[in-house]
Amino acid sequence: MRVLSVVGARPQFVKLAPISHAMDAAGGIEHIVVHTGQHYDPLMSDVFFRDLSIRPPDENLGVGSGAHGAQTGAMLAGLEPLIQQHAPDWVLVYGDTNSTLAAAVAAVKLHVPVAHLEAGLRSFNRRMPEEHNRVLTDHASDLLLAPTEVAMQHLAHEGLAERSVLVGDVMTDVLYATRDRVLAEGLPLPEGVEAGKYHVATLHRPDNTDDPERLAAILDQLAALAHPVLLLVHPRLRALAAQHGITLDQGAIRAIEPLPYPELVAAVSRSAGVITDSGGLQKEAFLLRVPCTTVRPETEWVETVELGWNVLVSDELGALRAAVERPAPAPTDATPYGTGQAAAAVVRALRG
Ligand code: UD1
Question: Looking at ligand 1, which residue's alpha carbon is closest to its atom 26?
């Protein structure tokens, strides 16, 4: 069997790691990896291949940044001849980025079967580009690899039950493996902070970064926290803050470069809490049993909220600081994201 994976943005490299390793372990699978080049900074791309022991991509389209249409269009044009050339049995697409949508559309038009990893997630927020990417990709795909029961319900509701399989969440696989490695190696704490007495924060969603007033209001709240806040700055945030004349380093905030994955896992696991608008980080916080505050009106990972480990703050930004400094949640041993065996289930589903 020949599988062609298409990745392009940071969270997709993380998801590619367990899939790639599971395919190697299963044997008899030729796995071709195409990088669209959506993320190209070394800290947004190369370090993930290095740290998660993924061999370098077979092809890189070098598409880079751009408006949605130009970026997605360049990917479509670049992917079509590659899919024809490699003639895979499956094109495997990951998550909800522009790279996901482009690969799904390129493949179905060539009548090549598409499998969508992380199918069925919904925020029901039509302002998010990712929501359109997910819905369109799910409806174009032939095999929907769902991470959770809730995702399976969404797919059934949209008439896609027959194409759906519950495989669990591959980010759980890679997180547990990395956590165990980091604990064994004893990675040092980030500089200048004490265990349990700092927060980890990320912000990159257009809804939070593009409006200068909203961005300043979020940063004000973070700056006023009692413990230091390590703000891991995505290039989008760095560029927009500079454009709006907003200083990231203020009060409790320490603005630093994005962290490689093992360092991120180490930093989050010893933090007092996470503040984010990322999907993946909300879940990573939960899996490491660190409280999370999400700066969004809704989340795809509803289980983290239902179990009390994630609180959403969006309209009432004045309440953000109090939400972050809330009392600790009740312990839970629930496993809504599986036990770390999802990638093997994906390989079984692809084999049919
Ligand atoms: C993309 C995904 C988002 C995912 C995120 C993870 C879409 C629509 N969004 O958002 O779902 O959560 O990746 O990080 O696909 N930039 C650089 N260097 C890079 C990458 C980006 O400087 O290596 C800058 C560019 O100015 C670019 C901006 O960041 O315009 C945004 O990058 P883009 O890939 O368009 O979207 P993300 O915000 O990263």
Answer: 236
Is there a contact between 302 and 122 (Cβ–Cβ < 8 Å)?
A: no
Q: Is 39 in the pocket of ligand 1 (CB under 6 A)?
A: yes
Distance CA 177, CA 14 (A): 12
Element containing residue 165 per DSSP (H, E): strand 164-166
End-to-end CA distance of the chain: 11
> What does the pLDDT average to over 219-239?
98
Side-chain-side CA neighbours of 169 within 13 Å: the count stands at 24
Query: Which residue's CA is the closest to the ligand 1 atom numbered 4?
Result: 97
Average the pLDDT over 272-287 and give the result.
Answer: 98
For this structure, is 132 an active site residue?
Answer: no
Residue closest via CA to ligand 1's atom 2 equals 97
Confidence (pLDDT) at 65: 98
Indicate the average pLDDT of the chain. 97
- ∠187-189-191 over CA atoms, to 5°? 125
The pLDDT tens digits for 185-209 are 988 888 899 999 999 999 999 999 9
The reported pTM is: 0.97
> Using CA positions, which residue lies closest to atom 15 of ligand 1?
97
Question: Residue 31: CB within 6 Å of ligand 1?
Answer: no
pLDDT tens digits for range 248-279: 999 999 999 999 999 999 999 999 999 999 99
Per annotation, catalytic residue among 111, 204, 227, 244: 204
Q: Which domains does the chain have, with CATH numbers?
A: 2-169+338-351 (3.40.50.2000), 190-324 (3.40.50.2000)
The reply to whether ligand 1 has any atom less than 6 angstroms from the CB of 10 is yes
273 φ, ψ (degrees, to nearest 5): 170, 165
φ, ψ dihedrals at 85, nearest 5°: -65, -45
Task: Dump pLDDT digits (tens) for 288-299.
Answer: 999 999 999 999
Q: Is the CB of 329 under 6 A from ligand 1?
A: no
Q: Report the atom number in ligand 1 closest to the C-alpha of 44.
A: 23
Judge whether residue 316 has pLDDT over 90: yes
Q: Residue 168: CB within 6 Å of ligand 1?
A: no
